[in-house]
């Protein structure tokens, strides 16, 4: 039998937060012990209309939550500003964060990595928790060894704050590891409307779409003379991310280091 893992969920009323609560509810060795929410301080989750009947206190202050509740793991699914603060406080209190929030700056990631090391407390930050998306990135890196001309098209719901997505950025970083920097397209190409060709990362282009109806979708399109190759992943439901969250929670319990990208737990 697996050891019980006590968890705090940040953002329980959000769409991803509700999926995390459903995951905890159906996983025998997961136990919700508290929530961090920008509203409802001092209330209990079971008293909120439409929420699962967990006996879990709600805090608006992350420091207070970690001081008062004995937790092993923080599941952080809010936004970059709050998520950074929550993850930082969790590490200070030796609580292992599993973070699905993207949009952190390089400096913020570095500070969280340093905190993880100094506190010997594991942290997993995953731009995407969908197992299929991790495989899509892995396949894209392999394809880039043979197809150096590539563009990334990512499509998300219109409430997403950061662009490009963390998944697109991570995909570009993985491709950079095996692809030499070079300019794609016509050498004299001109944008008649600025930004028409998308963001530029070492010559490859990233395009972001934000529309109602999407959840998360990404295409990595490779081209060479006479052929194209498209690697596509589509999350049609937020439940697609929960297998990765469950995997990360179980894995982070055995870690004392900083992990960026779920693929680094899947090796």
TrEMBL record:
**InterPro entries linked to this entry:** DapB_C, DapB_N, DapB_N_CS, DHDPR_bac, NAD(P)-bd_dom_sf
User: Which family does this protein fall into?
Assistant: Belongs to the DapB family.
Classification via Pfam families: DapB_C, DapB_N
* Reactions performed catalytically: (S)-2,3,4,5-tetrahydrodipicolinate + NAD(+) + H2O = (2S,4S)-4-hydroxy-2,3,4,5-tetrahydrodipicolinate + NADH + H(+); (S)-2,3,4,5-tetrahydrodipicolinate + NADP(+) + H2O = (2S,4S)-4-hydroxy-2,3,4,5-tetrahydrodipicolinate + NADPH + H(+)
Q: Which HAMAP family match?
A: DapB (MF_00102)
Q: Name one GO biological process term.
A: lysine biosynthetic process via diaminopimelate
Amino acids binding NADP(+):
39
Copy the pathway line from the protein's UniProt record.
Amino-acid biosynthesis; L-lysine biosynthesis via DAP pathway; (S)-tetrahydrodipicolinate from L-aspartate: step 4/4
**Residues annotated as binding (S)-2,3,4,5-tetrahydrodipicolinate:** 157, 166-167
What's its job?
Catalyzes the conversion of 4-hydroxy-tetrahydrodipicolinate (HTPA) to tetrahydrodipicolinate.
Protein name according to UniProt: 4-hydroxy-tetrahydrodipicolinate reductase
Of the GO CC terms on this record, one is:
cytosol
Going by the UniProt record, its keywords in alphabetical order are: Amino-acid biosynthesis, Cytoplasm, Diaminopimelate biosynthesis, Lysine biosynthesis, NAD, NADP, Oxidoreductase
Q: How does it assemble?
A: Homotetramer.
Any idea where the Dihydrodipicolinate reductase C-terminal domain is? Answer: 132-266
Residues that coordinate or bind NAD(+): 11-16, 100-102, 126-129
> Which Gene3D superfamilies does the entry mention?
Dihydrodipicolinate Reductase, domain 2 (3.30.360.10), NAD(P)-binding Rossmann-like Domain (3.40.50.720)
**Chain ranges of the Dihydrodipicolinate reductase N-terminal domain:** 5-129
The primary site where this protein sits is cytoplasm
* Flavoprotein as UniProt keyword: no
Subcellular locations according to the entry = Cytoplasm
State whether keyword Amino-acid biosynthesis applies: yes
Query: Per the UniProt record, which EC number(s) apply here?
Result: 1.17.1.8
**The protein's enzyme class:** oxidoreductase
List GO molecular-function terms, semicolon-separated. Answer: 4-hydroxy-tetrahydrodipicolinate reductase; NAD binding; NADP binding; oxidoreductase activity, acting on CH or CH2 groups, NAD or NADP as acceptor
